[in-house]
Amino acid sequence: MPVLPGTGGEISPDQRGHVPVLVNGPRLGPRLRGVTTVTNVFGSPHKGTGPRHEQVVFCQDEATGLRAIIAIYSTALGPALGGTRFYPYDSEDAALADVLNLSRAMAYKNALAGLDLGGGKAVIIGDPATDKSEALLRAYGRFVQSLNGRYYTACDVGTYSEDMDVIARECSFVTGRTIAHGGAGDSSILTAFGVFQGMRASAEAAWGEPTLRGRRVGVEGIGKVGHRLVEHLLEDGADVVICDVNDTAVERMRAKHPEVAVVADRDALIAADIDVYAPCALGGSLDDRMASALGAKIVCGGANNQLAHVGIEKQLADRGILYAPDYVVNSGGVIQVADEIEGFDFDRAKARATGIFETTRRIFAMAAAEGVPPAAAADRLAEQRMSEVGRLRGLWLGS
Ligand SMILES: NC(=O)c1ccc[n+]([C@@H]2O[C@H](COP(=O)([O-])OP(=O)(O)OC[C@H]3O[C@@H](n4cnc5c(N)ncnc54)[C@H](O)[C@@H]3O)[C@@H](O)[C@H]2O)c1
């Protein structure tokens, strides 16, 4: 019977094959007090025809308070790469659901980024502001190391390059490290560059020329990615209008670029007669209301999971709005950190991120030819690469 790491107790799957977890987790002590079904890991009802999660690992170290879940969706193209999210989830169910979704998304993102990497992700349950410690991160590093290279970690919400350096003291499979430790540094540099490439391809599909010159682009969120995207857009000759909930970020932008227009919020941005809407804040900004109010011709931004639900992609297509799939155009960041595995070279990573232009173009062409929304075409292309290239590992190379 399987044993949850660190619990010292045995568990058994229930008769439907669901994955059982500890109720209330490690704070109850070493004895299992109860087991409940949280989700159907082995048969997640995902869209698409790709493989299901290969491996989901629960990691616990009671002394440091570490409770982590590492999910490996696919290693068809190589070791799974994806960040570690440190977040105060309301429940273990929520953490598990998040890591399952995020790891699948990484497999698709890495496949379309042309990387020889599969998709995985990890979550650490807790508040990074109060629960993060050297010992906890190093305990986590030992669990990642125990996977022997099947999973490479990186930064995500709640974790930073400095944390990766700490994890790397126990583990060889870490990217997103500080420049001082040979890392790629801030991945938003190539994320923004890649979004700009995707937007150029979108402009070409919509207006015939791969440029934003003379177009009005609305950027929602001018954080690490958004403010860099604004720089690319201004350089290309676009008119830019922004909104951000952080007044300091807005003032900083205005001080540097007084020509950038500012509006109060997302509603005002959507109403600002924009040609392109670039969501660069949080996910889910395109819900039914926004999708029906949007006057822009193109949606292309850095935020993850921009569509509130899958039906939005059809709504946008029906209204003649071109949606550049988020995980395709925002893959510059993972391209940047993945390059660390070879020994980081910024120019090489940038050259690869330039390819986002061609990939986006190919997705639009495929979507038009097959009469499907670009998001569906992107999923199909990613699955095709995972299947075609992944299959080659079955060719025997001799001993
Ligand atoms: N940083 C990367 O390399 C990277 C890579 C891939 C995807 N992403 C995604 O891109 C998005 C932005 O990432 P980031 O690194 O720039 O984060 P960030 O935290 O630096 O910036 C986000 C900005 O959005 C603003 N914001 C939040 N809610 C808002 C709202 N309702 N309206 C307007 N502005 C709002 C914040 O004030 C902040 O300035 C996220 O969805 C992230 O997951 C980032």
From TrEMBL:
Residues 185-394 form the Glutamate/phenylalanine/leucine/valine/L-tryptophan dehydrogenase C-terminal domain. Coiled coil: none annotated. Pfam families: ELFV_dehydrog (PF00208), ELFV_dehydrog_N (PF02812). It comes from the Bacteria. Keywords: NAD, Oxidoreductase. The keyword Zinc does not apply. PROSITE patterns: GLFV_DEHYDROGENASE (PS00074). The keyword Oxidoreductase applies. Belongs to the Glu/Leu/Phe/Val dehydrogenases family. This is Glu/Leu/Phe/Val dehydrogenase. It comes from Actinomadura alba.
